[in-house]
Amino acid sequence: MDAVRTLILALTATAACTPARATHVTIEVRTPSGAAARDAVVVVDAQDGAAAPAHEKAVVDQVNKQFDPQITVVRTGSTIVFPNHDQIHHQVYSFSEARRFELDLYAGSRNASEVFGKPGLVVLGCNIHDRMLAFVAVVGSPYFAKLPANGTGDFDLPPGRYTVSAWHPELGAVHKQTLTVESAPAKVTLTLQAPPTYDPVSAWPE
């Protein structure tokens, strides 16, 4: 009898510790004409609590007087390295509330870096070249993507309730659409439509 009771307790403990099976969710982002919103940022937030910060690394290069890539998405706590592959001086800075900093003036491949510990949209510029502009989207959720040319992202989400947001620096933004994930695969389509006076910074979905 004791052996049976022990087995039941072990099975119960195993079931309680087994994570819920993830469900495949496809999220596509389109313009009003139906075109794919390439480089749109999609963030899926669980409604049952915040995720722990990450300690990941990303690279934003400086090539031909441009930032590469123009849009980067990282989790809070991540480090971004800013190499300079131009043979001229650059000075990267940001005045954004989510991360204010100013790197030293430098040329060559010096790998200066910054830690992005607060969620929000960070706008990058260069004190030497005013036309250089880039965006760093710092997100708290582990579920995010910068969409490829087809405007579609694939996510494996545990069943539960989420909000979905999408943002693009030119095409517009969609804020916190409710998504309920169950066991069956799902597909979500979001449409971006920027107003005539669109400001990509204030449009970032907090």
Question: How do the strands and helices of this protein lay out in sequence?
Answer:
Elements: H1 2-17, E1 23-30, E2 41-46, E3 57-59, E4 61-63, E5 66-68, E6 71-75, E7 78-82, E8 92-96, E9 99-102, E10 112-116, E11 120-126, E12 133-139, E13 143-146, E14 152-157, E15 160-168, E16 172-181, E17 186-191
Parallel strand pairs: 1-17, 3-7, 6-12
Antiparallel strand pairs: 1-14, 2-13, 2-15, 4-5, 7-10, 8-9, 8-11, 11-12, 15-16
Question: Quick summary of this structure?
Answer:
It is built from 1 helix and 17 strands. It has 206 residues and is mainly β. It has 2 domains: 22-51 and 143-200, Immunoglobulins (Immunoglobulin-like); 52-140, Immunoglobulin-like.
Explain this structure to me?
By secondary structure, the chain is mainly beta. It folds into 2 domains: 22-51 and 143-200, Immunoglobulins (Immunoglobulin-like, Sandwich); 52-140, Cupredoxins -  blue copper proteins (Immunoglobulin-like), CATH 2.60.40. It is 8% helix and 47% strand. The chain contains 1 helix and 17 strands. The chain has one helix at 2-17; strands at residues 23-30, 41-46, 57-59, 61-63, 66-68, 71-75, 78-82, 92-96, 99-102, 112-116, 120-126, 133-139, 143-146, 152-157, 160-168, 172-181, 186-191. Strands 6-12-11-8-9 form a 5-stranded mixed beta sheet, with no helix packed on it. A hairpin with a 2-residue loop joins strand 4 and strand 5. The protein is globular and about 55 Å long. Residues 1-19 have low confidence and may be disordered.
